[in-house]
Amino acid sequence: MCGIVGYIGTKEASGILLEGLRKLEYRGYDSAGIATVLEGEIHCVRAKGKLHNLEEKLVGETNPARLGIAHTRWATHGKPEEYNAHPHMDMAKRIAVIQNGIIENYRELREELKSRGCEFRSDTDTEVIPHLIAEELSKAEQVAEEPLIEAVRQVVRKLRGAFAIAVICADYPDELIVARQQAPVVLGFGEGEFYCASDTPALIPYTRAILNLENGELARMTPLGVEIYSFGGQRLKKAPRTLDVNPVMVEKQGFKHYMLKEIYEQPGVVRSCLEAYVNSAWTSADHKNSPIRFDLPQSWYRNLQHVQIVACGTSWHAGLVGKYLLEQLADVPTTIHYASEFRYAPAPLVPHTLTIGVTQSGETADTLAALEMEKARRDNKSEEFEARLLGITNRPESSLGQLVSNIIDTHAGIEIGVAATKTFVAQLMAFYALAIDIAFHRQTIAAQQIEALLTGLSQLPAQIELILESQERYIEELAHDFAETQDFIFLGRGINFPIALEGALKLKEISYIHAEGYPAGEMKHGPIALLDAKVPVVAIAMPGPVFEKVLSNAQEARARDARLIGVTPMDEQDAADTFDTLIPVPHIDEILSPILTVIPLQLLAYHIAARRGLDVDQPRNLAKSVTVE
Ligand code: G6P
Hints:
The chain is of the alpha/beta class. It folds into three domains: 248 residues, Aminohydrolase, N-terminal nucleophile (Ntn) domain (Glutamine Phosphoribosylpyrophosphate, subunit 1, domain 1); 193 residues, Rossmann fold (3-Layer(aba) Sandwich); 157 residues, Glucose-6-phosphate isomerase like protein, domain 1 (Rossmann fold, 3-Layer(aba) Sandwich). 36% of the residues lie in helices and 22% in strands. It has an eight-stranded antiparallel β-sheet, with helices on one face. It has a seven-stranded antiparallel β-sheet with strand order 5-6-7-8-12-13-14. The chain has a five-stranded parallel β-sheet with strand order 17-16-18-19-20, with helices on both faces. β18, α11 and β19 form a beta-alpha-beta unit. The longest helix has 34 residues. The radius of gyration is 26 Å and the shape is globular. The site of 6-O-phosphono-alpha-D-glucopyranose has 16 residues, from α9.
């Protein structure tokens, strides 16, 4: 995680860099720092904690430097203290480096450097880099035409792990060097000015001409242009592309928090997904063409025996809904794995398997590694075992997009709040469309059922709007009751079990309240022991095969004095009699209901956290994009 940003050009670098950090703060906010090259010296300022601490330190400072780098940190190696904040410098303080990632062999490099007399000022893995560059630079200056990039190139070849780095040197005031190995970095192109950043939101205010640096590549940026090289030293020819993003998307637009704004964007996100995925002219009379416009290779549908899904966090919850849909609609046995587990203990190979990586950022290290591992272990196998990799992501231009050739774009627009909301709903939409597509090709459900599902999906945006309009105030008031609550239980069954997990995760992430999501029928096998009048239970009860079962499970909680909150359709008398508090949602086919039932749970988590006065968009210890293992 961590955010890196760099600038070289004709304007004052510091303002651009701080603005960039603001846009990248979602990646980590344990400390922040900036280094510029000013009057032949490196000028470095760092501060513990959020960006505003750094900004306070810089108040009143004028800094005309035209070259600089800046960093916002999510601590991995070393406590979140100022001395561990990036940029890190060499002993002579001529070279400054920022890094996103982990240098896995930093211990041995550190020992080697120490044995050569190097003194370390931090506990970080990153600090080895400026010291190594200083050593290499003195050698490169004897032999190389471009000594700084040559020194960095020599050093990156010694580093193991996943990293993106940016380097400046007081002796080379017209150069910014950037390198990438398994951690994202994008370059931005302006008129006589160039940028680098971990993610595009930092660049959008300045340029739409961008280039993703790929693994094993270095860039030498000067006011005259950008040169790209491989770690092997070969010059590469690459041209920037134009990014299609509206800058308004990354502003709060009057909402108190990004998270609330993103919750309210969900009807629009569902509409965008429907427009992108569904052929609206399709009718059940068309047996030839799928109603879904995914264009996956035809061979993938043939003999499909197994789907395996790898993901982390909220994306894993979306995958769990996906498993349910693929099994129930498309009749394909589906397994779901935490990417961090799968990559070190993969399930045995099953022939004719589709592997789906779900990651909103497209940068989660474990998910990428799981997919790479799957690709590698299926390499050179017979056709039935060939790798069929599909990515579901909100960032098709990400590392996932480079790794996997078939991508479903979730069209949610950039999400800034660390707790995922609109991207989760968009991932669910991708799974609905995929399950319908595969079901169509495998003819596992009737065309009329597909038509009914598509009609149901098309009604979702208005139904979400109804929940937002009619329930947000109510949930805000309800949240007052829980400002001091310490534990919550969320129950759901069938396709709403993952939503119980997601409701609990949202609450944990932003309100720091302990919460457990459980399949309602399992509650009596353990969590029921936790219940008393102080533990609220939120149950999702949607009419369908398990409706009455969920109500019975809720009664079991009530008998232990728990306060019962039901997310359930309006006008369901049995539910009204069961729950102490109702959060009504519109009537809907149970299989489509997760997209509605998750909305009140997002709002509940949001308002409880806001009520507790917490930093909803940047909860402690979390980062939105987890680019380390
Ligand atoms: C982090 C974020 C979560 C997210 C997870 C997976 O933990 O805080 O909100 O669900 O990473 O991220 P991805 O980008 O792979 O969906």
